[in-house]
Specification:
By secondary structure, the protein is an alpha+beta fold. Helix content is 22%, strand content 48%. The protein has two domains: 37-114, no CATH class; 118-245, no CATH class. It has helices at 3-17, 25-35, 39-42, 99-116, 222-227, and strands at 43-50, 53-60, 63-71, 76-82, 85-90, 93-95, 127-137, 140-149, 161-167, 173-182, 185-199, 202-212, 231-237, 240-244.
Length: 245
């Protein structure tokens, strides 16, 4: 048999045996974003309550304003992150915030808004996506995708590594794991989505938030640890009184 023909046959057979290996990670992410609201989020105003604070997110095709409002008996603190940077107001007064604290507050505000609409944001320019393969969790099959960030444009926490488990049949993101830097090293979390609801076409979920019982484990192994009951529930991430315009 012609050598070239043999090579072609081997390639075709290999593709049939391992179709998922050739899967376009961009297609998976695009589908996951679309099923969760997609373009509706591009131009939206979203509000919700989280842990006794009120959050407001206004997006307009690249322009954004993320706010966190903390109300006490005597004051209201407005932390605002937008395209022009971070600002803090106490009542109506703009407060000068040291650069080191502005970075901390910005990261805190951005994190809550970022998680509230995931997987929206995974097509940002600083995001790097890698298809790991198919895996099973609780008997269901998931596309497993690793996400890292460029230093330029990746934010203060650009070194964090995320893993997304996107349902093979529904394209809904049901599990998210991530690593982050702590004072004494790296921390790991896995979030399990529950309480799914759509508000004006945008998908919102709450999360069970887990950490590994063992140390020195990889973020890529968090699904296996979850299946083996080797994760410990540390908190719940619950959004309340969600509105969308």
């Amino acid at each position: 048999m012609n050598r070239i023909l043999i090579i072609v046959l081997l390639v075709v057979l290999n593709c049939k045996e391992q179709p998922e290996a050739l899967l376009n990670v961009q297609t998976v992410v695009d589908n996951a974003i679309e099923i969760s609201g997609g373009e509706l989020i591009d131009s939206s105003s979203i509000t919700f309550n989280f842990r006794d604070r009120h959050y407001v997110a206004k997006r307009n095709n690249g322009d954004y304003l993320f706010a966190r409002i903390t109300t006490t008996d005597s004051d209201s603190v407005f932390d605002i992150l937008s395209n022009k940077g971070f600002e803090r107001f106490i009542n109506d007064d703009l407060i000068k915030v040291p650069d080191s604290m502005a970075v901390k507050y910005s990261s805190s505000v951005n994190s809550v808004h970022y998680f509230s609409v995931l997987p929206y944001g995974l097509n940002d320019g600083a995001v790097n996506k890698k298809y790991i393969g198919l895996t099973k969790i609780k008997g269901q099959r998931f596309h497993k995708i690793q996400v890292t960030f460029d230093k330029e444009g990746g934010g203060e926490d650009f070194e964090d590594v995320f893993v997304y488990w996107i349902n093979k049949d529904t394209y809904k993101t049901e599990y998210i794991a991530y690593s982050y830097i702590e004072d004494d090293g790296w921390g790991l979390r896995l979030r399990e989505a529950y309480n799914e609801r759509y508000v004006d076409g945008i998908r919102f979920v709450d999360y069970n938030n887990y950490k590994p019982k063992a140390k020195n484990v990889s973020v890529l192994d968090m699904d296996a640890l979850f299946e083996k009951n080797q994760l410990q529930l540390v908190s719940k991430i619950e959004l309340e009184k969600i509105t969308v315009n």
